[in-house]
Fold this sequence. Notes:
By secondary structure, the protein is mainly alpha-helical. The protein has a single domain, classed as Sodium/glucose cotransporter (Up-down Bundle). 77% of the residues lie in helices and 0% in strands. It contains 20 helices and no strands. The protein has helices spanning 3-25, 32-37, 44-71, 76-103, 110-118, 124-156, 162-219, 222-228, 234-237, 251-258, 268-276, 280-311, 324-332, 337-378, 384-405, 413-437, 443-462, 470-474, 478-496, 502-513. The longest helix is centred in the middle third of the chain and has 58 residues, at 162-219.
Amino acid sequence: MTEKQIIILVAFAAYMLMMILIGAFSSKNKNNEDYFLAGRGLGSWTAALSAQASDMSGWLLMGLPGAIYIAGTGEVWIAIGLLIGTILNWYLVARRLRKYTIVSNNSLTIPSFFENRFHDKSGILKIVASLIIIVFFAVYTASAFSSGAKLFANVFGSADNSDTMYLIGLSIAALVILIYTFMGGFKAVCYTDFIQGLLMLVAILAVPIIAYIGLTGEFGSLTSALSANGVADPMGYLSLMKDSEGNPISAVSIISNLGWALGYFGMPHILIRFMAIKSDKEVKKSRIIAIVWVILSLGAASLLGIFARGFLTQALDSTTSETVFIKSILQIFDGNFVLIFIGGIFLCGILAAIMSTADSQLLVTASAVSEDMYKGAINKKASDKNALWVGKIAVVVVAIIAYVIALNPNSSIMGLVSNAWAGFGAAFGPVVLLSLFWKRFNLSGAVAGMATGAALVIVWEYIPIGGETLAASTSLYSLVVGFFLAALVAVVVTLCTKAPSQEIVEEFEKVNTVEI
């Protein structure tokens, strides 16, 4: 190992030790509400930064800049879609979901909210929702583990041992996340995510600025730098309406990328932050902080992909483009001990992005197993202590499953995130919105909509029809189709079945007037 690698390793070790200590500090959880919702006591800054840090994951610093590096500014439509989704989620969903979950028997999880919202005595809705969470979060958590593994492989590996370093990195990332999530629960996750959200923002803002100064100093302008680094049509590369080859971007591609906005309404690890906010007043503060954070981080990540194409001396291809942030830092922060150590801290921004998402996903999955499946269906008389331990065991099991999924070093971070995002957005998004805003919505419609959305994404993305999947043949993102089909099915089934009881209607109307 070189001296540079040792210095960066020291920075990594210090950062991960700090996260573990926060987990230990937050380990006093009296019951499930403490472990899974931090006693509904989150302040505005913690709620906002933990929500957005857990949202973006390693995708923000690796997947998005890598896609833009290869395809050009036309890929920014994804970032625009995510910004729209963030704004709508905070303004439409956050405040009402927080109030409704309290009115609905103090629901601690998204599945339990669905069950309480419709007074489902059968438990079918809670079980279906929990299974969807387990399946898609296993994939989503795998994307975070894969990000960590690729970080270690690129920083500490070589052509001879890259696969070995990928495995070591995967193991370390999974273990550290598992330790502090297991110990501290939601409080530890939110405190660490707050710190990680700040670190991610500093890193993603600083690196593109330095890269731009470097490329203009050498080539005079961005377009000159792009031309010198093999971009045939720099103006096309910089256009929102063209790809890197200068060809017009199709309407289907733009719709698919903007369609990422729809996913927000169904993301359990984001929605649960809304449920845990201390008060309505804190919600209003949180939404402003969160939106500013997202504008800055998505904008900077997009610029990084563009600037790196003209800045990096080492050209990347479609298989290595997701390392663009790593390569940029290693090129910028090279020389003396201080520079290398600062570079190591900036690389911890990727660890922050990875850990802030994976810990949330593990915790939400654990809550689905503990609160919804075990205590809600298998052993309704279980004590809080037993249910809490079942949840902690579930954290370990899901982490192992995600670890196995992420073992392939050639797995695409963007692809894993895209599929999981579509699954949650299509299955839960329409049901969440209709539950919050449509008084007539009933149990039958919720079950039908949820099942339709999840099934559509699985068929669209994974089942070959005529030799290729519908995702490949149409180039249309499964989330767009799944969301609207699930919403349509949910509405039609609701209108064709019995209206909800007067008690359910009264609860719905109470949410309109109650101040909590």
